[in-house]
Amino acid sequence: MSLVNMSKLLKDASVNHYGVGAFSVANMEMVLGAIQAAEEFKSPIILQVAQVRLPYSPLKVFGPLMIAAAKAAKVPVAVHLDHGLDIDTIKLALELGFTSVMIDASALPIDENIAMVLKVKVLADQYGADVEAEVGQLAGSEDGSVDHEMLYSDPEEVLKLYTKTNLDAIALSIGNAHGLYKKEPKLNFKILEEARKRVPIPLVLHGGSGISDEDFRKCIAGGIRKINVATATFLSVEEAVRQYCKEEKRDYFSMSKAMVCGSYANVSRHIKVFQSDNKV
Ligand code: 13P
């Protein structure tokens, strides 16, 4: 059990046709709630933190906490750097023991994206870690600071990225977006199907918050193996604290417990939708 490579989890998910939740975390309570859910539902999970969130959860402090929690877990847990933006941060995550990293060079033309992925792949190989990259660009950004235009993934570019870099997982842009959707998302399953036909490696769906359960199931049936969920867990934790604050008698530790419960509630809900329960 405990700390494992992301590719190991995604391989089992591919063989047994389910999705693995990659849950973004920002503090100890969120980590504890996510792992509690994974243990209770006997599910593998991925704990991740995005580079843009590091000003709030510094990698040198928070990274070792994530690793320690994964090692102590009774289920397999991969620890992942989400949307890595530069080599120094990626290298630090690898040194701390993260078992996978994402390099997000998706804003660059495909050949420059490939060149960045190759650099990260060489580095990650030295640590025995896995690499995820993205083709196309999601609308919005992980911290809501930028409102990118959406650029759908081109399946031919997905193939090119895979053949040139031999990376471990590719994130697609099929109408999904980071943060809360302004209107109901309409996923383009044809792109997923075309990408699936071209590459044998696990595909990744970012922007999990706000996707319907039915679309999650269709994505999993279409070959998505890693599903990123961030905003929904942050909201769940925030709401748990809001409710807690209405109580007459309050103290810090009870509030901390409410945060754990908020994280647990959202992670367990997604574990069941992704059908990763009882897979350990
Ligand atoms: P959401 O915040 O929309 O769930 O997106 C999470 C994500 O894709 C992180 O990379």
TrEMBL record:
Active-site positions on this chain: D82
Q: Which GO terms describe its biological process?
A: carbohydrate metabolic process
Taking the record's annotation, the residue ranges forming a coiled coil are none
Question: Any binding details for the cofactor?
Answer: Binds 2 Zn(2+) ions per subunit. One is catalytic and the other provides a structural contribution.
**InterPro entries this protein is in?**
Aldolase_TIM (IPR013785), Class_II_FBP_aldolase (IPR050246), FBA_II (IPR000771)
Q: Which UniProt keywords apply?
A: Metal-binding, Zinc
User: Does the entry feature the keyword Acetylation, yes or no?
Assistant: no
Top-level taxon in the UniProt lineage: Bacteria
Q: Which amino acid positions bind dihydroxyacetone phosphate, per UniProt?
A: G179, G207, G208, S209, N228, V229, A230, T231
Molecular-function annotations in GO: aldehyde-lyase activity; zinc ion binding
Record-listed Zn(2+) 1 binding positions: H83, H178, H206
Q: Does the keyword Zinc apply?
A: yes
**Cofactor list:** Zn(2+)
Per UniProt, Zn(2+) 2 binds at: D104, E134
User: What protein name applies here?
Assistant: Class II aldolase
Q: What is the lineage of its organism?
A: Bacteria, Bacillati, Bacillota, Clostridia, Lachnospirales
